[in-house]
Design brief:
Elements: H1 3-14, H2 23-49, H3 59-68, H4 71-78, H5 81-84, H6 89-110, H7 118-137, H8 140-151
Helix pairs in contact: 1-2, 1-7, 2-3, 2-6, 2-7, 2-8, 4-6, 6-7
Length: about 160
């Protein structure tokens, strides 16, 4: 899954009708903006912990790592301000957006009374695209540490 393809799909949903898109299109676009971040992070976890494209990586290990990312655990880790303070700004901004857009995705997917505006959803799509670029611009050591932080659970004491 290519995260920027999801960004494009979310934008396309806003263009389906002239003027005011339906709430269904706005909800799908809002949800898709979050999923762009989720798949960006899942791909980074797999690439940085197993290896990027190439014959030297195990497809099975890569897929297992990609699928291991859990929405709730990742969000909780992103909201841990004490731990997040040790990461550079590009990763912190990604984490903030990840948590915020996950909340908006839940509203879009599960709140029958939620209302969305084209302007706000467009802002969320733009935010997702911007923070993905900032995340990718952070150093590999910091990105790998963040991937471990959101993917693995600390041992119980």
């Amino acid at each position: 899954m290519k995260p920027l393809d999801l960004i494009d799909a979310a934008g396309d949903l806003l263009k389906l009708s002239r003027g005011r898109p339906s709430q269904a299109c706005l909800r799908r676009a809002q949800s898709t903006a979050y999923y762009a971040l989720f798949h960006c992070l899942a791909g980074e976890c797999a690439d940085l912990l197993v290896g990027g494209d190439g014959v030297t990586r195990s497809r099975e290990a890569w897929a297992q790592t990609y699928r291991a990312l859990e929405h709730g655990h990742a969000k909780a880790q992103c909201e841990n301000l004490g731990a997040m303070a040790r990461f550079p700004s590009g990763i912190r901004e990604f984490a903030d957006a990840f948590a915020a857009l996950q909340k908006k995705r839940h509203e879009a997917d599960y709140d029958p009374f939620g209302q969305f505006s084209k302007k706000v959803v467009r802002e969320h799509i733009d935010t997702a695209e911007r923070v993905m670029a900032g995340f990718k611009g952070a150093g590999v050591v910091e990105r790998r540490a963040f991937c471990v932080w959101v993917l693995l659970r600390a041992p119980r004491r």
